[in-house]
């Protein structure tokens, strides 16, 4: 039982609180240690995210299209074109003689022409078309397959058309009220079947041909174009076609000339993007490795934060987080290995075996910590002269001295990220699976046990002060009794 200091006049609450503040100091220290471990864990994970960004860019550095990307430009409006990395450079003359079209079928006459009232597509078929009072069935066949449709007298025309559109045979069907006609069309262009692109069969096929007037299919034509020589005609079901790595799209009947050239500027941009990301990472990590710890700033406890403004907390923690990765051997080792990769010669059968030959060299300023500088003019010349050799320099899939620079860097990134994950895990990792996580688990366990101990200590303090209060209260009662009796005897 907790009692106030009525007998002693002492502020027992404040005394116990002060005593517990002193007892709680080890717990506060553990809370600060936990925060610091969490900061360290997050700092390592941020490093891994940066390495992952560089690793993703490295994927592009291994692709042919990065170094041998092509650019296509077309004169006239008949054709547009895109060139893949495999496209041959040069001029392509294309004459489009016919565009691909989709087959369609429209009611020959208005469906309400012989009616007293206009057709209601949402009313029962039996009410709208007396000859189909018992329903019916028909089959539609396209290049995508065939499907049998059955309708009842209480189905509406819109119900039937909706079923046709959703049957998966590549047909769209609808009734237009203003035209008062049904339209049925293929979702794909081209002449894909012998005969009609939408063939109607079955006992109820006359519902489509006679009742709805869908008996005059049009369209369904292939695109046709002359490539180079007018005698070399090519057809396509669609308004696009690929020749020699060039994708042509046909817009109208007419002629166009397509020029395909090597897109050197695109290759320069991708290479410099990779170098820029590398420079950004080594600069940022270099700063973290050399950043000194500020030992005057420990992590704040929750109690300390309650007494501070948000901006004060932010500034304090900025100082407290300094030096979390100071001198880390795994990160410094990774940076050293990556710098070494840029200096290495790459043995290959191309014209270039060292980065300096294509305009990429290490900065002469030692303060740049090995950042790279790119001479874009020299790089452009190298790509123009032998783009494949530039690719081999970066991504040659060999062994030892034949390993491309990017592949060497990828190996370093992979090993480093694995080491960091063993120490700091990743967002989806369980604490027990990595070193810092296990430290957090152990610390949580210690904090929980210490909290139980604090509870016992606080109960003991209250018990002791309660006993003291009771003893003094008893003494005061005895003293009062004696004074009363002594006072009575003197009378």
TrEMBL record:
- Asked whether the keyword Secreted is assigned, the reply is yes
Q: What is its main location?
A: secreted
According to its UniProt entry, the function of this protein is described as: Required for morphogenesis and for the elongation of the flagellar filament by facilitating polymerization of the flagellin monomers at the tip of growing filament. Forms a capping structure, which prevents flagellin subunits (transported through the central channel of the flagellum) from leaking out without polymerization at the distal end.
On assembly, the entry states: Homopentamer.
Q: Name one GO cellular component term.
A: bacterial-type flagellum filament cap
Tell me the keywords, alphabetical order.
Answer: Bacterial flagellum, Cell projection, Cilium, Coiled coil, Flagellum, Secreted
State the signal peptide span. Answer: none
The cellular location(s) given in this protein's UniProt record come to: Secreted; Bacterial flagellum
The residues covered by the Flagellar hook-associated protein 2 N-terminal domain are 8-102
Q: What is this protein called?
A: Flagellar hook-associated protein 2
List the InterPro entries hit by this protein, alphabetically: FliD, FliD_C, FliD_N
* Limits of the Flagellar hook-associated protein 2 C-terminal domain: 220-477
List the NCBIfam families.
PRK07737.1
Similarity section: Belongs to the FliD family.
Answer yes or no on keyword Coiled coil: yes
- GO biological process per UniProt: bacterial-type flagellum-dependent cell motility; cell adhesion
């Amino acid at each position: 039982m907790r009692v106030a200091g009525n007998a002693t006049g002492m502020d027992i609450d404040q005394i116990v609180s002060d005593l517990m503040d002193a007892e709680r100091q080890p717990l506060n220290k553990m809370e600060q240690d936990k925060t610091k471990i969490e900061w360290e864990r997050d700092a390592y994970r941020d490093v891994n995210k940066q390495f992952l960004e560089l690793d993703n860019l490295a994927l592009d550095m291994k692709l042919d299209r990065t170094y041998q990307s092509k650019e296509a430009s077309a004169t006239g409006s008949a054709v547009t074109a895109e060139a893949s990395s495999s496209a041959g450079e040069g001029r392509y003359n294309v004459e489009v003689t016919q565009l691909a079209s989709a087959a369609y079928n429209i009611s020959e006459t208005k469906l309400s022409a012989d009616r007293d009232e206009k057709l209601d597509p949402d009313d029962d078929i039996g009410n709208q078309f007396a000859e189909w009072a018992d329903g019916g069935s028909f089959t539609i066949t396209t290049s995508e397959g065939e499907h049998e449709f059955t309708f009842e007298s209480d189905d509406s025309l819109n119900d039937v058309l909706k079923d046709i559109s959703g049957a998966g045979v590549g047909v769209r069907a609808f009734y237009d009220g203003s035209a008062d006609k049904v339209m049925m069309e293929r979702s794909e262009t081209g002449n894909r079947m012998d005969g009609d692109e939408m063939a109607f069969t079955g006992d109820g096929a006359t519902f489509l041909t006679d009742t709805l007037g869908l008996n005059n299919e049009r369209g369904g034509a292939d695109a046709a174009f002359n490539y180079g020589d007018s005698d070399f005609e090519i057809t396509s079901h669609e308004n696009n076609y690929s020749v020699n790595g060039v994708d042509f799209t046909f817009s109208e009947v007419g002629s166009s000339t397509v020029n395909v050239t090597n897109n050197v500027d695109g290759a320069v941009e991708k290479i410099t993007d990779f170098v820029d990301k590398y420079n950004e990472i080594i600069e940022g990590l270099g700063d973290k490795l050399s950043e000194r710890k500020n030992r005057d700033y420990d992590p704040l406890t929750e109690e300390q934060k309650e007494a501070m403004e948000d901006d004060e907390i932010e500034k304090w923690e900025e100082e407290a987080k300094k030096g979390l990765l100071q001198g880390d051997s795994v990160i410094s080792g990774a940076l050293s290995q990556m710098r070494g990769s840029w200096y290495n010669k790459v043995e290959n059968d191309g014209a270039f075996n060292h980065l300096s030959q294509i305009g990429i060299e290490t900065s002469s300023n030692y303060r740049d910590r090995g950042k790279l500088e790119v001479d874009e003019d020299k790089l452009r010349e190298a790509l123009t002269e032998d783009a494949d050799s530039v690719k081999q320099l970066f991504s040659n899939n060999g062994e030892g001295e034949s390993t491309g620079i990017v592949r060497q860097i990828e190996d370093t990134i992979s090993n480093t990220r694995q080491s960091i994950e063993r120490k700091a895990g990743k967002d989806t990792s369980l604490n027990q699976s990595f070193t810092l996580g296990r430290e957090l688990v152990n610390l949580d366990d210690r904090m929980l046990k210490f909290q139980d101990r604090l509870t016992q200590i606080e109960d003991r303090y209250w018990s002791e002060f309660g006993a003291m209060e009771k003893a003094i209260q008893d003494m005061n009662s005895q003293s009062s009794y004696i004074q009363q009796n002594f006072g009575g005897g003197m009378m």
